[in-house]
Predict the structure.
Amino acid sequence: MKIAMAIGVAGIAGATLAASLSLAQDKGSAAAGIEQYRAALADGNPAELWEARGEGLWKEKRGPKKASLERCDLGLGPGVVKGAYTILPKYFPDTDKVEDLESRLVTCMVTLQGFTPEQAKKDPFGGPGKKVPMDALVAYVTSESRGMPMHVSLAHPKEKEAYELGREIFFYRGGSHDFGCTSCHGADGKRIRLQDLPNLTNPADARRAYSTWPAYRVSQGEVRSMQWRLNDCFRQQRFPELEFVSPASIALTLYLAKNADGAKFDAPAIKR
Amino acid sequence: MADPMKIRAAMVGDKVEVKVLMAHEMETGQRKDAKGATIPAWFIQNVTATVNGRTVLSAEWGPAVAKNPFLSFRFSGAKAGDKVVIAWTDNHGDKRTDEATITA
Amino acid sequence: MNIRRLTILVLTVAAGCSTMPSQETTHTPSHAEVAALLKSSFKAKGQAGLDRLDQDEMQRLCSEVRADKPLAPDVAEKIVKAQAATLRYPPGSLLGDWKSGEKIAQTGVGMQYSDDPTHPSGGNCYACHQLAPHEMSYGTIGPSLYKFGALRGYTPEMQKYVYGKVYNPDAFSACSNMPRFGHMGILTEQQIKDVVALLMDPSSPVNK
């Protein structure tokens, strides 16, 4: 009877997702047209260039220790890349903290390759004419989780704690404009200008949103990760700068990942 | 040489379908940087695709082509196992050549 | 493991399989814990100092609102009263220039650490609202303001309401998603008058 209950709950979650998908199609030819356009764009996704560069950087001997990242433990054991992104962020006993992908890459760049934390965290986001290793590594590692279901765990007390903190951050109103994540991402069916806004407290929206980052952002000409996405949201919220791989960034990512539980990972994607 | 391209070439019926992703900034020469200075134009000018020594595509591009451009085209007269060679040169004289084997 | 423990374990696993974890298994962090985490995870940049993370009373209360914990009516009333006390109206006419108002509505810059602090802020009204009919690129976070004055009447009372609403929306609706453009110093007095004109001038495109 208990197993039937578990299946029943999973069934309801699946039905909700299916219902919201068919609703999207009912919205008419405009939505269908956008889907076709997105499929066409996905064919020539420049993110593949980052994935190729990232694979090279994963295998290249770099840093003072002249070592590759091929022994890096992303959560499934040293060197296991396939599927690793689907369970991140998670607790790591070797650092005794909850880490997301980028903080784990920093950890490995420090412990395996001998970089200082400052060197590893420097310039995490690419820009015009500026190529950085971090976003390429993110593109490569995440590409190895494409098509797989995402499930983060809250079993460890630090994971639970991070989830709860992440939720408080999501609802934290502040700055000159009283914005919190919830201001834009707390209700169904809203858009800012013409950009649809996922309600990140609604599992169906959260799954669709969270499973398509990282993404090649055409308007930026760069592959952008969740760390970048959070950093840029806070800038527009009139907050000061969210520090790269900071505890708050990881807590918030874990909160979003949990809300998106069960999503099929569909990235690196391509976005406007 | 510049950054590598990603090339896929596959048979579609009796034609070959080629998809190429090129890594290039493709600056139009119209943009200004934060200080207000114009960012110089830097874009791919010529693209050629050759198979078994025969040119199957030749293109002259300009600043209207997007950053990290994606090129897709079909041609006939080759089979699985043949090599497609794509080469580009840009207005700075930088160049890149990559190849891919046509899959069935 | 006996049957009772196995039952509890299966129930816990089943509960974990649902999409949202149950509230009662965890403790809610205190405001102090969250504020400390944020302070240690952000750094000052440009015009955005760490003081931007300090919440005023309203922000603190509004941060506690959840789908399962809506704003209590007495708390809402307290907020509205406190925010209404901040309202400051300039002397004379509240109606500025709608053409400037439209520019303010279209501009989203201001107060970000990437913005020039000497440059005036915009109101970014189109981010959330429909306004003039020629502008298709409008958001739906807030209600449509199309034909605002035409529908409500071009009265001094309505002008005063609009001014106050832009100055401090929480004086009318506690925990509004809309920024407090006047009270927080985002827009100047003249800018707010220009936005009033955008909504309340009969010749504004919003009313055509």
Observations:
- Chain C has a mean pLDDT of 91.
- The first strand of chain C starts at residue 42 and ends at 43.
- DSSP finds eight helices and one strand in chain C.
- Strands of chain C lie at 42-43.
